[in-house]
Amino acid sequence: MKITPSRINTLLTIGENLNIEFKRAGDGPKADTFESVCAFLNKAGGDLLLGVDDDGTVVGLPPKSVDAMIRNFVKVMNDPNLFEPTTQLYPEHIVYKRKHLIYVHVPESPEVHRFKGATYVRVHESDVRVKGTEPLAQLFIRKQHVFTEQRVFPYVTKKDMRLDLLPRIKEMTRDGHPWRRMSADAIFKSAKLMGVDAESGKKGFKAAAVLLLGSDDCIGDVFPAYKTDALLRRVNIDRYDDRVTVSTNLLDSYDQLCAFGEKHLLDKFYLEDDMRVSLRDKILREMIGNLLIHREFSSARYARFIIERDRMYTENANRAFRYGRITPKNLEPEPKNPIIANFFHQIRLADELGSGVRNLYHYVKIYSNAEPVFDEDDVFRLTVPLDDAYSADRALTEGLPQTTTAQDGVLKGGMNSGMKSGMKGDVSGMKTADAIIALMRADSQITHDILAARLGKARNSIIKQIAKLKKNGLIRRVGPDKGGHWEVIG
């Protein structure tokens, strides 16, 4: 949630304590700022304010330097030579009583962090460096009980890993990403996929590594109940019309589940910044990513992805931090499996924490004219309403033909008209014909039923209009009625 002047006032009133730290930072964040961040991550989290003296006096920051300070802060947090392991934090610039401040919320981390090789924890209002084997061991033990993905398996070796996935992983990262030139061992270390069992002292792969890159046999041995069911229930609602059971690594699972959704969901036409955007793929990316990344893998409950007539939803075991409905207004992102989430982020299958809720609210509204529902409980459920007859371009298709200042054959609003000016024969149904062609250009696999629903016409009327268009050489059917597609000619 965005920081507000009211929240700043509350922090200043409370003053520095276990979870609040002030830094003057007139020349930018110094080493003691990152020591405090490290201490918050290792203990119980907290709030950091830059531009405030220790006694709570607001001194402010140079306005022209704020952006550079934020960039420097983010750079340090993502530099493995300074901060290990790196982590994603989101500094916010706020003006409070005409003073410029930087606010950073630091959540508790499931990992043990170091700044310049030293580990810090928060004690009262101070950042204390952890020294000695016993205090460090206790810190690791406490952290390892936070998330299942942190569990270490000393007897899992590289022979149990799908090393053949690494070239694909490197290709999926952005240009210039360090992983592209790293060895397998270096990637394992950078991604925090290996660790030390705090009780035995043995090194090994973490559960996150097994889930992301493990062989199917290895995953089955470590997580015998791990499985995701994808079901289509549109005709046979008591059982299913189609089913895929996925029990492989998370990368291949993502591909298989997205392919299932692509097979059974309409890919509706939509222009965003003059570029065609697949609303279906945008929604599937967030839904499937959420299902795989934030799942509690220690549970014996299967995860599910179900598509029905008027909705689709996912269900997965969950370690809830709070209970109830999640919306963009009350969203307080908490990492469920931060190692897995970071891995998906590096290979560009996920964005920053919390973006999925905002993206789904945006794209589902365009896709279905409705809002998604996020229910946080011991079983997390994400529901997306479906309406095959709805499209954001409905206003265009209902009124075609309209006044067209067409450029390059495109109607105002972005819908291709597809109308061939030399059409011969009976043109008494010109309005409907124009709309049919536009919709076929937008979705080459559109059905008679959907055309009828979109245009408010009887199915037989649509069939007759299509026959006229085919006769006049404006469209043709490629392939069989089931599995084929429409092609607009000219």
Walk me through this protein's architecture:
The protein is an alpha+beta fold and 490 residues long. It folds into four domains: 5-132, Schlafen, AAA domain (Methyltransferase, Cobalt-precorrin-4 Transmethylase, Domain 2), CATH 3.30.950.30; 147-222, no CATH class; 228-385, Heat Shock Protein 90 (2-Layer Sandwich), CATH 3.30.565; 398-488, Arc Repressor Mutant, subunit A. The protein is 34% helix and 19% strand. It is built from 16 helices and 22 strands. It has a seven-stranded mixed beta sheet. A four-stranded mixed beta sheet has the order 1-2-5-4, with helices on both faces. The protein has a three-stranded antiparallel beta sheet with strand order 9-11-10. Strand 1 (20-23), helix 2 (31-42) and strand 2 form a beta-alpha-beta unit. The model is unreliable at 394-430 (pLDDT under 50).
Give the SSE map.
Layout: H1 5-14, E1 20-23, H2 31-42, E2 46-50, H3 66-77, E3 83-84, E4 92-96, E5 99-106, E6 114-115, E7 120-123, E8 126-129, H4 133-144, E9 152-153, H5 166-172, H6 184-190, E10 194-196, E11 203-206, H7 207-213, H8 216-222, E12 228-233, E13 242-246, H9 250-264, E14 271-272, E15 275-276, H10 279-293, E16 303-308, E17 311-317, E18 324-326, H11 338-346, H12 355-368, E19 373-376, E20 379-385, H13 394-399, H14 430-442, H15 448-455, H16 459-471, E21 475-478, E22 485-488
Parallel strand pairs: 1-2, 12-16
Antiparallel strand pairs: 2-5, 3-6, 4-5, 7-8, 9-11, 10-11, 12-13, 14-15, 16-17, 17-20, 18-19, 19-20, 21-22
